[in-house]
Amino acid sequence: MLTYTIDLNPFVRLSDHQFAQLCASHPDIKFERNSRGELVIMSPTGGETGNRNIELSADFVVWNRRNKLGYLFDSSTCFKLPNGGNRSPDLSWIRRDRWEALSPEDREKFPPIAPDFALELKSPSDTLKDLREKMAEYQDAGVELGWLIDRQARTVEIYRQGREPKLRQSPGSLDGETVLPGFELDLSIVW
Questions:
Q1: pTM above threshold 0.85
Q2: Half-sphere exposure of 119 toward its Cβ, with a 13 Å CA cutoff?
Q3: Is 74 strand, coil or helix?
Q4: Cα(94)–Cα(23) distance, integer angstroms
Q5: For residues 75-97, b (16+ Cβ closer than 10 Å) or e, as one string?
Q6: Cβ of 99: how many Cβ atoms within 10 Å?
Q7: Which of 92, 112, 139, 153 reaches 20 to 30 Å from 85, CA-CA?
Q8: What is the DSSP letter of 92?
Q9: Contact 91, 53 (CB under 8 A)
């Protein structure tokens, strides 16, 4: 399982429409585009990472259904970020007022909005360098809170708007702070 980054910029710059067409023409391939316009092609995750992803998602779904503060999105959702990237966090969340301010058309395509929260769960095929770059793009695009979870190293990097990332070693839980009020993630399902 590998991730490939291809710089097509010397030859062609894909418009948003062309990028969407590329994705639609190849639905079995997961594409992203970083803020430099480079095409990122990712393979599917393995079983352990997929299992952890769905277990994490369940906790977010339960919290979100109880609180009704916003909308959750899975890793298949590609966002058109303000910094030019087209990114698909493993899990993301957007406040209700921000999501509902988008037109129905914008909600149907790659939504032109940065999530309020983004989570990336490192799989064995990911590199920390690439994931850290992705998290920095999220911050640059306006994501308020981001978690980069590396289950093999048992670490979490916490990204907050306007601050340097904070590394936590083997935390038992994570607090959603003011972005996800009242949310606490028990990390025993990850480790």
A1: yes
A2: 26
A3: strand
A4: 23
A5: bebbbbbebebbbbbbbbbbbee
A6: 18
A7: 153
A8: E
A9: yes
Tokens of 140: 């640059």
Reduced to 3 states (helix: H, G, I; strand: E, B; else coil), residue 181 is: coil
100: helix, strand or coil:
helix
Q: The tokens of 43 are what?
A: 């393979």
Which structure tokens are listed for 136? Answer: 């920095």
Tens of each residue's pLDDT in the chain, 191 residues? 578 899 998 898 999 999 999 999 998 889 999 999 999 998 777 788 878 888 999 999 999 999 999 999 999 999 999 999 999 999 999 999 999 999 999 999 999 999 999 999 998 888 999 999 999 999 999 999 999 999 999 999 999 999 999 999 999 999 999 999 999 999 999 99
Closest alpha carbon to 135 in 90, 80, 68, 93: 90
Strand order in the sheet with 70-74: 70-74, 91-95, 117-121, 145-150, 155-160, 166-169
> Which tokens hold the place of 124?
């064995």
The token pair at 39 is: 């095409």
Q: Which residue has the tokens 């990122």?
A: 40
